[in-house]
Amino acid sequence: MSPETETLLHTPLHGEHVALGARLVPFAGWEMPVQYAGIVEEHNAVRGAAGMFDVSHMGRFEVHGPDAGRFLRHVSTWDVTTLAPGGGHYAAACREDGGILDDVYVFRLEDERWLIVVNASNAPKMRDWMARHVAQFDARLVDRHHSTAMIAVQGPDALARLDAVIGADFVRSLKPRRCGETDWEGHTLFASRTGYTGEDGLELVIEDQGGPALWRALLEAGVTPCGLGARDTLRLEAALLLYGNDIDEETNPFEVGLDWVVTFDDGAEFLGRGALVRAKERDVTRRLVCLRALDRGIMRHGHAIRNDGADVGVVTSGGFSPTLGLSIGLGFVPPALGEVGCRLEVDVRGKALPVEVVPRPLYKRPKKN
Amino acid sequence: MVSPPELKYTKEHEWVRVEGDSGTIGITDYAQDQLGDIVFVELPAVGAEISAAQKLGEIESVKAVSELFAPVSGEVTEANDGLADSPESVNDDPYGDGWLIKVRLSDPAELDKLLSADEYEAFIEAEGD
Description:
By secondary structure, chain A is of the alpha+beta class. In chain A, 21% of the residues lie in helices and 33% in strands. Chain A is built from nine helices and 19 strands. Chain A has helices at residues 14-19, 39-48, 68-75, 123-134, 158-166, 168-172, 211-220, 228-237, 273-281, and strands spanning 23-27, 30-35, 51-54, 59-64, 88-94, 100-110, 113-118, 140-143, 148-154, 179-184, 187-192, 201-207, 224-226, 287-293, 304-307, 310-321, 326-333, 343-348, 351-358. The longest helix of chain A has 12 residues, at 123-134. Chain B is built from four helices and nine strands, in the order βββαβββββααβα. Chain B is globular and about 35 Å long. Helices cover 21% and strands 34% of the residues of chain B. In chain B, the strands form two sheets. A six-stranded antiparallel sheet of chain B has the order 1-2-3-9-8-5. In chain B, β1 (8-9) and β2 form a beta hairpin. Chain B has a single domain, classed as CATH 2.40.50.100. The chains are: A alpha+beta (369), B alpha+beta (129). Chain A binds chain B through residues 34-35, 38-41, 229, 233, 296-298, 300, 319-320, 322, 349, and chain B through 36-37, 39-40, 42, 58, 60, 62-63, 65, 84.
């Protein structure tokens, strides 16, 4: 499809967003809600109670067959074959040269049935990439992108609200990063104890016809609808990476703190292994760090980072933190300037904004007593 | 919110309230709604000269940064210092506490080129389509 004739895709929840008066914007080929009541209000609902996001635009592929796990290991940097049914893990998918094609979440539903969730912007690319490589395995790719809806429910009260809607026995059986399936109103419902906000909660996948009813049930249970605007401020505070901003095909996992999702011990010849082994042996030339503004002004994606007047790096994600009340960001700097406490400047359209390297993440949810 | 009839408007969504030779400048309710939560406003210093249709400062919402344009020319006599600590005033009360600057008008004839409240509302209605 050429850009001229391309029409925006609608998720199964599109009608719900329109009914709620959401402001809709194009995002990765989809028409998505950027906000309902306002970004700060939605952000605070997730930090203080419970919010939900339509994330149906994210790509979802099941992989079936005896070799499903080996295939997913082949396209992932982390050894997903160590997962038992009900397990899940974050990973990168890399090209042969080690560049990051996408960051993904892999779940094992059953022995021979798996789920991989990919970014909306990378879904067509990842579908092609996986289709090309699955041929050499006894496994089959099942595209579930358009036959399901996906809702992330996040916040300190998320599990309590979910208890009321989908049942406490099921909700409370899911430990962090684990997943399961149940029946909800006659529809298969997948849930995982994962998210992209720095808060506790579940991510739900339901057959598309069940999506609107589930959304409305959550709304009635007091969960605040939240748009992509709040999703971005929340993930930035939690220092969770955004593909296309913080990582792309020119990034390797070791520059951005993803060492923990690259495993070599099993000896698997996964895609990118050789390049990543070599990259790990080299010293990194740049490192992604968390930045906090020391004055008024907002750092944004693409702004230069300076030290003593010289360009030393770039802000990959920046914005305003509603929780901290000041601007925060992620950016690449040389390792020597990446220590916590290091003072740098960001060039905000010609004005120098003083910033400080701070521990990652910028926001960590309070531990429960 | 209805655009106050006593104000003059620009197609860049600023307003000016004229009292004698003084003009108070702000952004419209439509503009603040489009921008969303405003978190930072950069204004010219008192004493600075601004020119009609030229950039006078910047306004940042959580989402993005936007430029502010001067509806009229003149010398800045006052800037709304309260916005440093409460930029959300622009969202909450765009025609009142959320004003931006006051200027001494250097060319009152410029006011004739601005839109009336009715003309401005017709303009944003057309823009929304």
